[in-house]
Amino acid sequence: MKALVLGGGAAKGLAHIGVLKALEEIGFTPDIVIGCSMGSLVGSFYVNGISPDEMLDISKSIDKKRIAKFFTPRPSLAGFTDGKNVVNFLKEFYGEKLIEDLDGIKFAAVSTDLITGEEVAITKGPIYLAVRASIAIPGVFTPLYASERALVDGGVVDPVPVRVARAMGYEQVIGVNVLTHERPNLVHYEVKVETGVRGVKDGFSRFLQKNRIKSPSLNLFNVALLSVYAMEGSIIQNNLDLYPPDVYIEPNTSDIGLFEFDRGEYAFELGYNATMEKKGEILNLTKS
Q1: Mean pLDDT of the region 257-284
Q2: Which of 21, 107, 133, 212 has the most neighbouring CB atoms within 10 Å?
Q3: 163 alpha-carbon distance from chain centroid
């Protein structure tokens, strides 16, 4: 039994489309696709019969204006937006189709229960709701409330959920991580307080300008998003050490921003090439 595990990573996750294209050419067909966050979105398209080429075309049609609509502010105490526009987008492709009614490849979307801290593999119910739960970045999207659970992004506990595949009994697992482990060198900087808070602010601004570092817009939205993805880097490494896949694919998406969904073709190439580099391992896996 073969499983394909697709990890989270926002726009970086468009590389999964290239991974799927390469796997098709190599001749690897999984029995199940297990996705987390963006991996659940791409994976759900695939198991629903949408080809990698069609997915790439869809990604090209999504401009920055539409991306902004996905995050239309509807603030509440639980999140920046309620995700209704994302749900409407998903329903364009799935309607009310249930996971258990899929033909051929099975599907699981991984989420996190905020109440218990448990990892939740959603294998039944409407596809669009499973994906909505899996992509619910804490602080950005409100949780999906279902069966006394408050479900958010699966990356909170398991960004590349290989252990879910193992727990479900899949012996041959390909894991794909688009959140590269490389991090920029830590910059040490001592701010000299000259005139209270203003001195700190002015001193840091001079530091940013001198080192040509663009100061991020640290609104609630960006703080929530960047915090989650900063956390996930360490979680990924720890989990993969404990539950290594049989074949590990890691496209280097370090130069793709989390919201650069307009770089789908480039991400596609990264995923495709990274997978083809593991062609021998994949072929050996299929023979075993």
Answers
A1: 94
A2: 133
A3: 16
